[in-house]
Amino acid sequence: MSLAEEPSPSALSDAFAQLTEAVLSKRPILRELVQKHGRKTLVEYASLYTDVNLNPPIQSRQDELISTFTEEVAKRFGQTTAQAAARQLIQHYFVSTTDHMGMIVNQSFTNANLLTTASYVNHNDPDLQYVIVLPCANITFSNITFPRGLIFNSVVDGQVKLQRLSFIPSNAHNSIVYNFRPYTKQDVEKVHGVVCDKKSAQEISTETADKLHSLLDEVYAQPAVLEQPSYSEQVIQTNDQLWQKFAPSRLIYLEQETLTTALLIKYHLHVDTIISNIILKEEYTHLLEHYFSGIMGAFDEAKKYGTFFFWGITPDKHYRIQLWRVGNELRSDDGSIVVPLTPDGLEAALQAKTIIPSLLLVFTTLCFYYGLKCLGGFNQINYLTAMKNAYIKMNVDRGNYRSIEVCARAQTKEMNDGYLMAFGLSPNGGHIPATGLDLYLYGTDQTWPTIQNVARNLTVEQSLQPALVEFYRFVYSEPERLGALTALTAEQVVAHAGIDEVLQPCLRYI
């Protein structure tokens, strides 16, 4: 089937039905979520985030995770904030692992954290005041979510255009965000210059340019921010400050890899735990390869997919490199990185930040060992569920019944990404997903009440429908995609599904 620029209602309906089935067939946990929760409003569903499965083994391990979390947060936000966030985590043992480390402007991540904030109103709990996010820093700067800087929308020649402001140069595309150098005062000055150029080219208004200049000076050029040792640490500070300009909550960002590293060093590498066993004991290697091969985020040495629990980081260009177990060492294929596979060897490399925990090790530690509820995106709920099943099967083979008991209660199917509810109205009346920076630039005193109202009235299924267009492009490679489905736009889906009747734009693009 081929779609014209303006497809007929029946052609659009057929194409969207086909696209929906194509996505759900590849993401069965997403299908299960829609079937189970699709008719709930967004707030009704998000209110379930606090419903956490806890059993005595998980509760006995909570102290290790929460005390380590408190120490790491205190380093970045001070003791008062750290203690308050810890109280919240004790009572409500969940976090978001949806975000990638970067400035909090990406539409999906912004919406995910706004929804969590909106759900807090239903609980009327004074301890619920923070959105706790453990973002993934093990991504490159070329990631589609644009971790290099800020993104926002503006109107150019009557059309909404996405604008970018880069703090990190394009020659760092293949470098990973984790422990990357901080941006400098000169980098901020360059961004000021780009804002001036966009204003001169009439890509942004004078009012928008003035707001951007003020934000750059007030938040991103602070001496305390410029003095941070890495880009990630700068982002942790600036994200909370930007977030408070448009949301009635605090945003705590802490890299999932940083928390995992601290837990490994303090409680696992030098102690006999299931975590240290699967990393260090060779008898687990064949079980890992048998049960985890082919799972997204895990590894398959034969196919050279993923890495053995840790990625190496090259000292020259800060690139990520695969490591494989060779006897009692971790080695890269070219031999440029060699790490003793011993408690001391791994601790030294982790402290030096020359290795970084893989996604599999992060979730094995946080979710399967400590039982932390990790809200994620449409990919995470599928691969995390697959990892959980593989982890249980591996431990059945080893007779590790305590590990099975803890992991069996781990919740892996809770999704907070993809629910689009913060939209801006374009000049032609279309709905454009708002970025975090859009909310600052164009928001009014009615922006947050409008977002809350949409979350109370829009259903999970309705909210996901526009996102399926982007999901399709992610799930299928370009040669696999059908032209008629690729041609669909989120705006077409919004209009076709009647979502625009429920969707109230929270801002207007100017």
Number of strands: 15
* Number of structural domains: 3
Q: What does the radius of gyration come to?
A: 23 Å
Q: How does the major sheet shape up?
A: 3 strands, antiparallel
Shape from CA axes? globular
Based on secondary structure, the structural category is mainly alpha
Strand content: 5-15%
The low-pLDDT segments are none
Q: What is the mean predicted local confidence, pLDDT? A: 94
Tally of contiguous helical segments: 22
Distance between the termini: 37 Å
Within the largest sheet, what's the order of strands? 7-6-11
Classify the helix fraction into a percent range.
40-55%
Provide a short characterization of the protein structure.
It contains 22 helices and 15 strands. It has helices at 9-26, 28-37, 42-46, 56-77, 79-91, 107-123, 185-200, 206-220, 223-226, 231-243, 256-267, 274-280, 285-292, 343-352, 359-369, 380-398, 401-408, 436-442, 447-457, 460-475, 483-486, 490-496, and strands spanning 94-96, 130-133, 149-156, 159-166, 250-253, 310-313, 320-321, 324-326, 329-331, 338-340, 355-357, 373-375, 423-425, 431-433, 507-508.
